[in-house]
Amino acid sequence: MFTKDIGIDLGTANTLVYMRGKGIIIREPSVVAVNTRNDKNRYVGKAAKDVIGKTPGSIVAVRPLRDGVIADFDITTTMLQEFMRKAMRGTLLTKPNVLICIPSGVTPVERRAVREACKKAGAQTVLIIEEPMAAAVGAGLPVNAPTGSMIVDVGGGTSEIAVISLGGIVSSRSIRCAGDAFDTSIINYIKKKYNLLIGERTAENIKLEIGSAYPGTNEETMEVKGRNLLSGLPENITVSSAEIRDALVESLSKVIDAIKATLEGTPPELAADIIDHGITLAGGGALLRGLDKLINRETGMPVYIAEFPLDCVAEGTGRILENIEQYQDALTETVKYY
After folding, report:
1. Of 141, 184, 266, 314, which has the most beta carbons under 10 Å away?
2. Burial degree of 187 (CB within 10 A; 0-12, 13-18, 19+)
């Protein structure tokens, strides 16, 4: 009666919180700004992301998750605590039951870190589910049916590819190459070609504004500001969609290879279903222009983008919370704290 159930999509780039009966109530970047003098947190979420690259020496903006897993345990715990406090409207007197997503390729140590962080942040019960399963449920795929459904979830730190049938993952790959790797590729390309150093936020803006995975009809250009590595002075350059596509080739080929490897490990009957039903794209990476066309060209399969790709994992945790009995087999473990 007094316990609340919340689902958490703990992403490298963004954290979304779903409350049972209310839907997604929190969407915040997974960033914390810490004061190094007293180790106190100055900003959490959007406020912290806004100060990345603009802080004085005493304040450091930290992304506590790297490649889909916890890189800084204490800061992740603080961030979860803050988001859970917001979700519970300022009070943690009632400990919530938490369903949290993890990448399918994590090690037992990384899995335990997520569980312990939830416990320390104030969870009563922790249920863990693999991200591709939650994404498939959120995208509306028939995961419990005896047919093959394929999901490709390109997030910030990891790309999760899975073939699902009868409520379980049949074949999957989890690679640490996704949105952050795309940004790094753009930074390195501009540094190499123009001797210009740009920040993470600038690279992300370039990717969102003119980034593409497949040649389109409207090729665009964008003015980019950075620091010239030879003179040390600020400088403006203009980059085109074609250049950014060149920058992303290597990272995108890793995602394509992982999709092909997953398909190779799929039983023939399920592979036939995927030819009929196609591949579903979810996650922030699904918004990269032309990614669906590139996957279609490389695999020959029809590719569809989920209706709300950014919300798929969080929506999936919500649907699983609402119908927990249906998805009991999909939960990898449940731990209750007293």
Report:
1. 314
2. buried
